[in-house]
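Record format v2
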Amino acid sequence: MKDGPDIARIAALIGDPARANMLGALMTGKALTATELAHEAGITPQTASSHLRKLLEGGLVRLRGQGRHRYYALSGADVAATLESLMGLAAGRGHLRTRTGPRDAALRKARVCYNHLAGERGVMLYRSMITKKLLIETDDDVGLTPMGERFADAFGIDLAALRAKRAPLCRPCLDWSAREHHLAGSLGRAMLSRMESLGWLDRQPESRVIRFTAKGEAAFDARFSA
Amino acid sequence: MKDGPDIARIAALIGDPARANMLGALMTGKALTATELAHEAGITPQTASSHLRKLLEGGLVRLRGQGRHRYYALSGADVAATLESLMGLAAGRGHLRTRTGPRDAALRKARVCYNHLAGERGVMLYRSMITKKLLIETDDDVGLTPMGERFADAFGIDLAALRAKRAPLCRPCLDWSAREHHLAGSLGRAMLSRMESLGWLDRQPESRVIRFTAKGEAAFDARFSA
DNA sequence: TCCATGTTTCGACTATTGTCGAAGTATGAA
DNA sequence: TTCATACTTCGACAATAGTCGAAACATGGA
């Protein structure tokens, strides 16, 4: 069986605990420096440097040098999707962390997935926008309906600016905890950022956990509960 | 970053070349014996036994003992989906096999993906069934329309028997080479098997490659080219 | 210029683990 | 029972690769 792409190479790349932790930290979508990633993984900067070079050569991360800092980020949404897929397998097989702390429950509720909202609330948002015909699923993709465009505008999102970028506006992204889709793409990112500036939620530093404020929870439910 | 499921564990499991080859061989959906898998991976039976135990403990494969043979198979469609996702990453990053033989082109054209048709022809089939309104995509899933039921019946597929099983009838499955969906689920399996018994195609032993016969190619194009 | 900080390279150590030979267990057939 | 086949366990070897200390390199600020 020497057919197809070399799957073992990238799987081995993800398979080291230190590198997996780094990739997990990058799932927030933010770019992090080498030392920050070393701290996240619990290793020294030298070791982290070696790992990051391998991830870079493997094409899993992208590098943006800025002065004496070197910012690493996931190289694309497809990497994030594959990582989520692996998390789904691990979770489904009962291979959770040795210690499942209180953060685990918080993660299932709401978390950042490559800069957009994931977890129960992310799925809730997606489902609500589908049933309200703000989003429509076509073939493999999702798209904004005319009604959805008006909604986004009223929600305070500059669609024209988003469309100017190359990145796709809407993307479905599979959720490892809920096993349903949530909204990714530049619109997904913009909506999370908008909710943050509205004071609906707090993003915990150095973690994927998202905590909704009381006000935010009420406002979210009012709009997206059905 | 100690959040979420333990992704490194399963990634490391897939990350060994011998195990990756075994999993690749199991992507046909057929159950294989330990020695067959050893041969596929190019290792001795002793080594294969050790690997298979790890895959079993990791929950990636399922074991069905039968006499003195032990048949291994992928534990579920989610494993196959994750493997395809990894193949997509590897292919997209240019990390193909060192030697891309002629089988690679054949794989892109038509192959078995966990017992259903994948590759260009698989995507073709899926797209055709969508545009002809035989299938309809709803939310995350796909379903058969009334017109689709009549079509399946005329094609010689026993829908009632398929529905009696627990497995979902239709499932979209992302294709690593075409980056589009093709049809999985028990209907996908049944259609591939029906095409085989119609003499449209030959499944090569011990490989994922599917070769269409001249007659089968013509018949397939006549029905699913648009 | 000098110093502090972020990052990488080098070298050596260690642990892990994939590998196979040899022997042992289990199943089925004669 | 005896033999053959399928598979596993055990033990030992070797190679890979993750780890860190020490030192070098690069950048920015004073």
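The two ends of chain B are 49 Å apart (CA to CA).
DSSP finds eleven helices and eleven strands in chain B.
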